[in-house]
Automatic annotation (TrEMBL):
Peptidase M28 domain residues: 232-425
Domain of life: Bacteria
Listed InterPro entries: Peptidase_M28 (IPR007484), Peptidase_M28B (IPR039373)
Identification of the protein by name: M28 family peptidase
Record Pfam families: Peptidase_M28 (PF04389)
Amino acid sequence: MPISDLERRFLDRISLDVPWALVETFSTMPRWMPEDVNAAADVIGARLTALGIPFEMHQPEICLSVPLSASVSAGGRSFRAKPPSSALPVPEGRTAPLVRLQANPKALRSYNRDISTLFGGSITSVEDVRALVGGKIVVMQGFGNPALTSLIEEWGGVGLIAVNPGIDIHWGTCTTIWGSPDLADLPRKPKIPVVAVNNPDGQVLMAMAEAGGEATIRTDMLEGWFPQKIPVVTIPGSVEPEKFALLHGHYDSWDVGVGDNATGDATMLEIARVLWEGRAELRRSVKIAWWPGHSTGRYAGSTWFADRFAQDLDEHCVAQINCDSPGCRWATSYHDTRAFTESAAIATQAILDIVPGADVKTLRPPQAGDYSFNNIGLPSFFMLSSTMPEHLRLEKNYYDVSGCGANIAWHTENDTIEIADRDVLMTDMRIYLLSVLRVATPDILPFDWLATCDEFLETIASYEAASGGMADLSAARTVTLALHGALSRLSEAAPAPRNAALLRLARLLVPVNTTREPRFRHDPAYTVPPLPTLAIAAELPRLPEALRRAGQVELLRGMNRYVASIRAALHVAEAALK
């Protein structure tokens, strides 16, 4: 679609002066220790003040786990290591025999707990793997992610050594707890030490494991509840100021974290400047928030905001837009753009209008990236930003990482100023600004729930086919087809009831497609399949005979949740048409 005159006026205001100055400042400021994170928030606040933009500076106490040091000792040698956040602290060391596991390399970047996916069929019996792993320290290629850590702990492993793909060691996290824990979450805190080592050292350790060796893991962590600052700008709309879009990203980092996420912080600062100057032309408000606790608190900052302002978000927030790792060198492709189906057209068109001819592919967002609002039910798009073209990544022999525009400096000390690119940053800022405008300015909210309904029908068909006749999902299909018919007529509704319906549909359809937990709770940080309460249908043929009846009970309960949600959505759509 052509860029409108209003959008052009905003886009023409974009400049590199303010954002690049913040990138340069943050490139000298490590932002992972609690006091350093607060100092960075003060920098953001000072820049906002200098621009004349009012803001709130919240300072909640959030739960953090900050890696300090780690090592692995084996065979008379000491190996350099890094512990992920939330690893069990064992400064005195934990010693046990080593065992090597082989995993599917493509699955290890994801947070998937499906052992058939993780291990590609090499491990099929939980009993066998428990016998292999129990009482041992597992050493395996990949990243020490939450799903893998939780599985090894369940299998009786007493530690995990993740062998990273390259010469550098990457920081990360290993807890499935999303945000600061409540009483129900606490039992899921990792009970084993986890470390990452580089590939050359990991090859030695895996050989030791094959030879029957043992190792000692040491981890030292700073853990507790810390006051952390959260700057939030509210740019008021002039027609519906109570309704707002939320643009957000994290400002804490691993070390100085330029590509992850100083460039994102700078993007949000520049968008705040541009929107503030043109606020009279906004229909709806825009909130812009910078989060702490992303890296060391598993999204604790955004989760606190989701909890503290849940009722306001539920009543008034029209969408959330995540800003992470824009403006990185060589990141000129958009083949890995994340968006829920109802928002995919917004993201795609904004990219194409700024980068004509771009190869844009939108994918389902993983359970990551400060997507702390799924249980409330917010339409969502973007997570990581532009990325390196796949052919270039392969030419450079870069392995797959989860940020920095595919630069393997991600989550290492090498994520420094040269990772940022001024031209790419300018392009990505324009994409973000245009997409925000297309949520904040149109008379009718732009979310395509009919496309989401089509997705649901495809998911239901795939699960039913995968069940091999063991699951009858006809009730889910019937009610979804009814909703599809009502949604196809929703454009006939008057603007006010139509917008109200579009907002209410989000609160029903996003959670049923992305969460297992009830609304206002947070799902664990591992992969959630589409329509998760129906997903057991596809697993029935793989369940042992003794578990299939329990699987059928789970499916019946999941069907009840799904059908009730879709019926509620149908009532919303029909009411808007009256």
